[in-house]
Design brief:
The protein has one helix and four strands; from the N terminus they run E-E-E-E-H. By secondary structure, the protein is α+β, with helices and mostly antiparallel strands. It has one domain: Roll (Bacterial Protein-export protein SecB). Strands 1-4-3-2 form a four-stranded antiparallel β-sheet, covered by helices on one side. A hairpin with a 4-residue loop joins strand 2 and strand 3. The chain starts with 14 loop residues before the first strand and ends in a 34-residue tail after the last helix. The C terminus is likely disordered.
Length: 157
């Protein structure tokens, strides 16, 4: 009798979000040609999979620029840590992790990022619209290599 092989489920189907944590944030007013009511956003992502505890973690680094008027912009940098516990085994390949980070982890963080950016903008006197809603189709998967400081400091010579 031949056993039927079932593909492993996509991580989004077996993931339980356990934490969204703001690790750092900074904001500054910059001279620039920011277009009024326009926002640009870049996301850097790193993932870590703990197979023993079934924990999947992502470090997401955001750079958001908001045009306030024609001559100034607000630049916000924020870093979040997002963790998931996986209910069942899944395909933990680098491509799957990058796609999961982009389509699930970044989407989980976005409401928190929108609130932080809107709050900072208001406190700094910028009258800007909130960041637009994010759709998975707005993002593409590209994972950054882990920074070397995770491995510890370089030995002094």
């Amino acid at each position: 009798m031949t056993e039927t092989q079932h593909p492993l489920p996509h991580p989004a189907l077996v993931a339980n979000l356990t934490d969204v944590r703001l690790r750092s944030i900074s904001a500054e007013v910059c001279d620039g040609s920011g277009e009024p009511d326009k926002a640009s956003m870049q996301i850097g992502m790193r993932s870590e999979w703990d197979e023993d505890d079934h924990v999947l973690g992502f470090s997401l680094d955001y750079q958001v620029d908001l045009g306030a008027d024609g001559s100034t912009k607000l630049s916000v940098t924020a870093s979040y840590l997002v963790t998931f516990v996986m209910a069942r085994p899944f395909d933990g390949s680098p491509d799957t992790l990058a796609e999961f980070g982009t389509k699930v982890a970044a989407m989980a963080v976005h409401p928190y990022l929108r609130e932080v950016v809107a709050s900072l903008a208001a406190r700094m006197g910028f009258e800007v619209k909130p960041l637009p809603l994010l759709r998975p189709s707005d993002l593409t998967a590209k994972e950054e290599p882990a920074p070397s400081e995770e491995l510890g400091p370089e030995p002094k010579q």
